[in-house]
Design goal:
Blueprint: E1 3-9, E2 13-18, H1 23-29, E3 48-51, H2 62-67, H3 70-74, E4 77-79, E5 89-92, E6 119-125, H4 137-148, E7 155-156, H5 158-170, E8 174-180, E9 184-190, E10 198-204, E11 208-215, E12 221-228, H6 238-246, H7 249-274, E13 281-288, H8 290-297, E14 317-320, H9 321-324, E15 333-336, H10 346-355, E16 364-368, E17 373-378, E18 383-388, E19 409-415, E20 422-426, E21 434-435, H11 437-449, E22 468-471, E23 474-480, E24 491-494, H12 495-518, E25 528-532, H13 533-537, H14 541-546, E26 558-562, H15 564-574, H16 576-588, E27 590-591, H17 600-607, H18 617-624
Parallel strand pairs: 1-5, 7-9, 10-13, 13-15, 16-25, 18-27, 19-21, 25-26
Antiparallel strand pairs: 1-2, 3-4, 3-5, 6-8, 8-9, 10-11, 11-12, 14-15, 16-17, 17-18, 19-20, 22-23, 23-24
Helix pairs in contact: 6-7, 7-8, 10-15, 12-17, 15-16
Length: 625
């Protein structure tokens, strides 16, 4: 089928497009970035483009009508995931549809650990063989190591054995041995290279991949590297990527390859900043949610999305570099810590070790808000964990002007109680394009305080008729007027947006409450509430309490701990003892499946209100215990 030419504005770039093939696929194939939170399934409405000539395209679909207003349809707006162009044409990618630089968070609470990495180096001079001592090179090496370093039952990696004889003689028997867990010889290097020993901790997030390069001799963080998770072209949320992987072996391999390439790029960025050779990086510790864990390993994640949500493997895994395809030392070790359950991964394990909940007598709550929010409640005696299907609302999906925390996103909002004038802050100090999750929480809380919103989430239109605008079936509250935005339109917050956020916050709070109830703990008894992750680091705790997103504890008990997934991964990289703790946690943490809990629907319904329906039950529950 002959191709056609489409001019993409405002860049003025001409691309070759196959007739009647979905435009979004053609844009991605041409290297053009367009937002598509749902991975092109027509479920987010974010891939908006303006088509100059509608005559050259398929008729507008019902899906597009759902997400595009009548005025915008008349202006030529279409969804790239629904659009098929049949003749030479031009499209314009509006500002709100462009993928922008995302703010990423690398810092997080990290407790000090005794430096004792799994990778060690030993410099030694081997005695040369003689007619009186004709032992094999491998036997000579292991015997000398066992005697001088008090090691037992050493094994030598086959790749080391292949080059062992030549390496030893070329080095004149002056070598450095690289050991894994003091049980396996990973590499033999000529001369004394003991001063060069590095590892990398990696957080493979759904949105961002962040790598931290560590000097394993000092424990110092030398550099950071980061990249947008390349899998984003198949959807911004986990379920979209699982759906793509389910399509077949080739699709799964593609997702795995994208993840591996992303990790390689992040490591490369960090090594270049620190001027460290990749060949001197001997171990990589990788954490992520269970879906990212499985896809990285090339494991089919199908059953993670199907009840009873069973992972393929739960235990930790150690792999050789060549088995994975990471570009570090060819003999390096890739360590993936254990996971907890189908929707609670090794990133949650890392959160736990970073905060130390598992080692304290005091009861605490830890949550990491995202598309799936992980919640942990307990202490060293007993830890409960669950995953709340909070959905991607706080990341911008299904919110009229919602977006992730990228340049141009409004991140903070205040409403003047007398004039109702809105003050806001924008990431990058530019004109605003949309609203990110932290600002959504602010808007809800500020509207509640100023009685623009009642506890059921209804706009108070009758009391404030001049504040709200009704267009067709949509009632909206203007945050920024069109003249002050980059998109040339009012940035608004609608009644439907409130409902979407109510569903998300209710799922999170219901998860918190159910774990607290099972753990026999009430809000006042929580000694600490840890809020982890990039999103959690930028929220205003008072506002999160006002809307009922987190338990209503005193402000001094709330700690925004940042990227504890990465800081926990660093601890695992630096300490064999911490690595042992992760194994214990995986077996010890009791996972609660909310879908099987008989009280979830009731708690979810109660939590839909702001902050929640029954404030008195906390006192009554306390009396019960």
């Amino acid at each position: 089928m002959p191709s056609i030419t489409v001019t993409v504005e405002p860049e003025g770039r001409k691309i070759s497009v196959e007739r009647k093939i979905i435009l979004l696929k053609n844009l991605i194939a041409s290297g053009l970035s367009v937002r598509s939170d749902c991975g092109g399934k027509g479920e987010c409405g974010k891939c908006r483009v303006i088509l100059k000539d509608q005559k050259n395209a398929n008729p507008i679909s019902l899906t597009e009508i759902k997400y595009i207003s009548e005025d915008d349809i008349k202006a030529g707006y279409r969804l790239a995931c629904q659009l098929r162009i049949e003749g030479d044409s031009s499209i314009f990618i509006p500002s709100e549809s462009k993928i922008r630089n995302r703010r990423f968070l690398a810092e997080g609470l990290e407790r000090p650990v005794k430096l004792d990495s799994a990778i060690k180096k030993v410099h030694l001079h081997l005695p040369e063989p003689t007619l009186q001592d004709p032992r094999s090179d491998a036997e000579r090496l292991t015997a000398f190591l066992e005697k001088t370093c008090h090691l037992e039952s050493l094994e030598i990696d086959y790749r080391v054995i292949k080059n062992l004889s030549e390496t030893l003689r070329r080095a004149k028997w002056d070598i450095t041995v690289v050991l894994l867990n003091e049980k396996e010889v990973l590499a033999i290097e000529e001369g004394d290279t003991t001063s060069l020993l590095y590892g990398v901790a990696v957080d493979v997030g759904t949105s961002k991949i962040v790598a931290s390069l560590i000097d394993l001799l000092s424990g110092e963080t030398l550099a950071l590297g980061s990249i947008e998770n390349p899998q984003i072209i198949h959807g911004e949320d986990i379920l979209s990527r699982i759906s793509y992987a389910i399509l077949g072996e080739n699709e799964l391999k593609e997702l795995a390859s994208l993840a591996i390439n992303g990790v390689n790029t992040a490591i490369q960025n960090a090594s270049e900043r620190a001027k460290v050779s990749l060949s001197n990086i001997y171990e990589v510790v990788i954490v992520g949610n269970t879906a990212m864990h499985h896809i990285f390993l090339g494991l089919q994640p199908r059953h993670l999305a199907l009840a009873p949500y069973i992972p393929t493997i739960k235990e930790s895994i150690n792999l050789k570099t060549e088995e994975v395809g990471l570009r570090i030392n060819p003999c390096g070790n890739i360590h993936l810590p254990p996971i907890i359950a189908g929707f609670v991964g090794s990133d949650d394990i890392a959160d736990l070790v970073a905060t130390g909940i598992n080692e304290n007598n005091e009861t605490a709550l830890l949550l990491d808000v995202g598309t799936n929010t992980e919640v942990n409640v307990g202490n060293k005696i007993l830890l409960l964990s669950c995953s709340c299907a909070s959905g991607p609302a706080f990341e911008g999906a299904n919110i009229t002007h919602g977006m992730k925390a990228v340049e141009g996103a409004i991140e903070k909002v205040k409403i003047d109680p007398k004039t109702f004038k809105i003050e806001y802050e924008v990431i990058g100090n530019s004109k605003p394009v949309g609203i990110c999750g932290s600002a959504m929480i602010d808007i809800l809380a500020e509207m509640l305080r100023n009685k623009l919103l009642d506890k059921t989430g209804r706009f108070q239109v009758r009391q404030f008729p001049k504040i709200f605008k009704k267009t067709g079936n949509t009632t909206s509250f203007t945050i920024v007027r069109s003249s002050d935005t980059e998109i040339g339109k009012n940035i608004v917050f609608t009644q439907r947006d409130v409902r979407e956020l109510q569903l998300a916050k209710a799922a999170i709070y219901a998860g918190c409450w159910i774990l607290m109830e099972k753990r026999k703990v009430v809000e006042i008894e929580l000694k600490r509430v840890y809020v982890a992750g990039a999103f959690g680091n930028y929220i205003e705790p008072a506002n999160a309490k006002t809307i009922g997103l987190i338990p209503d504890v005193s402000d001094n008990k709330i700690e925004l701990v940042g990227n504890t997934a990465l800081s926990g991964a660093k601890m695992i990289l630096k300490s064999k003892h911490v690595r042992e703790i992760t194994e214990e946690l995986s077996a010890k943490v009791k996972y609660i499946e909310l879908g099987a809990d008989l009280t979830f629907n009731k708690e979810f319904s109660l939590a839909l209100q702001f902050p929640h329906s029954d404030l008195n039950r906390f006192q009554s529950f306390q009396r019960d215990i």
